[in-house]
Amino acid sequence: MTLKEQQIVRRPPMSLRDFLERFRPAGTPGASATGVPADRTAERTAELEPALARLADVQQEASQIRAAAEQEAEALRQNAAREAARRVGAAREHAPEVRRQAAEPLQREARQEADALRAAGDRTASAIRERALERMPHLVELAVADALRLTGGKREEP
To answer: What is the residue range of 120's domain?
Structure first.
């Protein structure tokens, strides 16, 4: 970077007053002209007023755009809130059916397991009844014999 470029880069930013001061007329060399002095303030005002008026219009337009955007954003937020509430309501209405569908395979499996246990219990009970029927005559004989022995009586044969 050259020395001139460095000086340009390091120069502090110029204020509006300094900028306008550069255009101040210095006057012509030689004898002063007689007459009415120029009103520099009026000249500057006349020169800058149209540009500043346009800036004011632009600022007002930007303000209107900002206000419209805020209204639109608020409308979008309200619509989103309504849509969210609608979806939550629909989800709450649909939740029992979803729970039922989710529980259905588990309930089916539990019913199958219960049926298998019931069938196994029925088979075990049936086997016990059959054994009891097979053993009953012998057990009745033993019980009668014990009762007769305890009573001291004899058993009568039919």
So the answer is: 49-125
Judge whether 88 lies within some domain: yes
Give the three-state DSSP class for 75: helix
Into how many domains does the chain fold?
1
Please tell me the predicted confidence (pLDDT) of residue 158.
45
Distance (Å, rounded) from C-alpha 107 to C-alpha 97? Answer: 15
Contact 125, 114 (CB under 8 A): no
20 part of a folded domain: no
Hey, how many other C-beta atoms are within 10 angstroms of the C-beta on 67?
A: 10
pLDDT at position 33 over 90? no
Q: CA 27, CA 42: separation in Å to the nearest integer?
A: 18
130 or 57, higher pLDDT? 130
CB 22 within 8 A of CB 44: no
Residues 51-75: tens digit of each pLDDT: 777 788 888 889 999 999 999 999 9
Task: Compute the distance between CA of residue 99 and CA of residue 62 in angstroms, rounded to an integer.
Answer: 53
